[in-house]
Every structure is written in structure tokens, then in C-alpha cells.
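Incident log, entry 3
Record: DUF7793 domain-containing protein (124 residues)
Problem: checksum mismatch between cached and fresh output.
Input:
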Amino acid sequence: MVVAFENNLCFYLIEEDILRIRFRPGVIITLDAAKAMVADRYRIQEGLVYPLLCDIQGIVEIDRLARNYLALEGSYLIRATALVVCHPTSEAISEFYLHTTYSPVPTESFYNLREALVFLREYL
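Fresh output:
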């Protein structure tokens, strides 16, 4: 079964037992935005745990409070996270997140979607 949902920040898709999130271009994530995104994610997950494929290429900025919220409270119902990056901005956001923020779930960054999926399939 495929489940899809979208809001003004991102698109959510559950497919092949992996939750995928793709951000809209130009997104700035504040704490309020992070809380809204997580609330939407909880609704579509319906209490089920998934590995998360997160395409962060649309994000242009994320503040410290939002980063911390997503790493901790945002890890609930997530087995592992693969961050997909493509350009210098998303790469910098990913590297900064990985080196400065504690997440209780395994989290890695990838340039290649296939490699990200291989990583996540270990957590199915």
C-alpha cells in the first residue's frame, strides 16, 4: 500500500515500507515548522515505525531549535534516517546536522538515492 501526503513544506510518501520525505524548494525550517512536519508524519504513519529517506535538497536553512527537535522528538517512530543531498547547500546542512546534533537513530548522508535505499533496507 502506498500512502502519500503533502503540506506547504514537503511531500510524504510511504512506499515499500520506507517513509520518504522530499522538501519543497526554498524551505526554511523553524521550530514551529518542524513541529508541524512531525505532527503530519505521525498522522500518516499511524503508529508504525519506518526507516526514513529524507531528500533535503529543498531546504535552504534550518535553525538550531528545529534541528534539535527533529533529531530527538522527530526520531520517534523512525528506525534509521538517510539524508539525500545533491548540491553544496544541502550537503552543508547535512554535514552540520550530522556533526553537531545527536540523533538516537542511525543517520547517514548520501549523494546517491540507491545507496541511501541500500542503507535503509538494513532496517526494514
